[in-house]
Write a structure and sequence with these properties.
Oligomer: single chain
Radius of gyration: 21 Å
Structural class: alpha/beta
Order of helices and strands: HEEEHHEHEHEEEHHHHEHEHHEE
Strand content: 15-25%
CATH superfamily of the largest domain: ATPase, nucleotide binding domain
CATH class of the largest domain: Alpha Beta
Number of domains: 2
Bound molecules: 5'-O-[(R)-(carboxyoxy)(hydroxy)phosphoryl]adenosine, zinc ion
Distance between the termini: 36 Å
Number of strands: 12
Helix content: 40-55%
Length: about 375
């Protein structure tokens, strides 16, 4: 037990995550350069938000309050690790929907105060960005592309607390664009899987959607114009034919997906070219589940002579194992927070980078 000795080379840490619409808790033990996930519990809230067509912060916060205790109990029981055998408690302290983040931080503080265990406030984005180390023990420095419903940025990860943002979205995240596309075409939520499935039989060349910001240097991205173009294309087809056929929908989805993939592929190539000496190009976030996109990014990595790494899907999307792992990284650096730890709605990983504008429906983009 590390808490009483203060040192251990295999710290075991409880992670708590409640920054968006998943209530999650996990226990992870360090195993050399990577982590052993002893348990990872994720309780989703999709059913609570479905009728509103997006995550409602107030509903999310209340649901977290109701589910966090249960998630933590389940994670400890599944891991067969009693609280007293933990080395520390790690919790997402931002960025995200503030009500949810506060619920998690309050619970973690209570547990830390009651047990005397060290408390570690974790940046949610650092959790995503360090996941390739949890799964594969990936050495620094590597390039991370975070693509989800709330995030889209290129990060050069040079250490557990050394992130350089090479670029990011200036408006929507790609997941939001997939979700809005699905909404516009009457497909179910979450939109990503529905759009990908529909695109399978579609013609990606039928609609010439814009490739935003490709004409500008750098690695910033934009997705909001794509959604407007899709809306116009849909209306034009309806005006022309009186409605949308299944094939039209498939072509719209395929053309939209091709535009997203083209933009992400080109910006990834630029980010790789801008950062020599990388050990790998890694992706994380729900959109990384998209097979077309993954294949394109793999090709880009191969062309740059860089290893491509995508964590298993359950670790690409929001979870608490990544928070526990980020806690292990901080614990190993001898860092800890005290009970004044604050919940932060915004918390850029790279404080030196210019702030990105916009806050999507999934919460603030750091
Ligand atoms: O990482 P995640 O679970 O949650 C956050 O947004 O933080 O990502 C969810 C997003 C949703 O917008 C969803 O539509 C998108 O990931 N997504 C996909 C696919 N699967 C999920 N987007 C494109 N293709 C997919 N197969
Ligand atoms: Zn996330």
């Amino acid at each position: 037990m590390g808490a009483s000795t203060g040192v251990t080379d295999r710290p075991t840490i409880l992670g708590i995550e409640s920054s968006c619409d998943d209530t999650a808790a996990a226990v992870v033990r360090a195993d050399g350069p990577r982590g052993e996930i002893l348990s990872s519990v994720v309780i989703g809230q999709a059913d609570l938000h479905a009728v509103f067509g997006g995550v409602v912060p107030e509903i999310a916060a209340r649901a977290h309050v109701g589910k966090l205790d249960h998630a933590v109990e389940a994670a400890l029981a599944e891991a067969r690790v009693p609280l007293r055998d933990l080395d520390a408690i790690a919790v997402t302290a931002g960025p995200g929907l503030i009500g949810g983040v506060l619920s998690g931080v309050m619970l973690a503080k209570g547990l830390a105060a009651a047990t005397g265990l060290p408390l570690l406030g974790i940046n949610h984005l650092a959790g995503h960005a360090l996941t390739p180390r949890l799964t594969d023990g990936l050495a620094f420095p590597y390039l991370m592309l975070l693509v989800s419903g709330g995030h889209c940025q290129f990060l050069r990860v040079a250490g557990a607390d050394r992130f350089t943002r090479l670029g990011g979205t200036i408006d929507d995240a790609p997941g939001e664009a997939f979700d809005k596309t699905a909404k516009i075409l009457g497909l179910p939520q979450p939109g990503g899987p529905a759009v990908e499935a529909a695109a399978r039989t579609g013609d990606p060349a039928r609609f010439a959607f814009p490739r935003p910001l490709l004409d500008r240097p750098g690695c910033d991205l934009s997705f909001s114009g794509l959604k407007t173009a899709l809306l116009r294309a849909r209306d034009a087809v309806i005006a022309d034919q009186g409605g949308l056929t299944r094939a039209d929908r498939a072509d719209l989805c395929a053309s939209f997906q091709a535009a997203v993939a083209d933009v992400l592929a080109e910006k990834s190539a630029r980010a790789l070219a801008a950062s020599p000496g990388l050990t790998a190009f890694a992706v994380a976030g729900g959109v990384a589940a998209n097979a077309t996109l993954r294949a394109r990014l793999e090709t880009v990595a191969a062309a740059a002579g860089t290893r491509f790494l995508a964590p298993p899907l359950a670790l690409c999307t929001d979870n608490a194992a990544m928070i526990a792992w980020a806690g292990i990284e901080r614990f190993r650096l001898g860092q800890a927070d005290d009970l004044t730890l604050a919940a932060r709605p915004r918390w850029p990983l790279d404080a030196a980078a210019a702030p990105l504008l916009g806050a999507g429906k999934r919460g603030a983009k750091a």
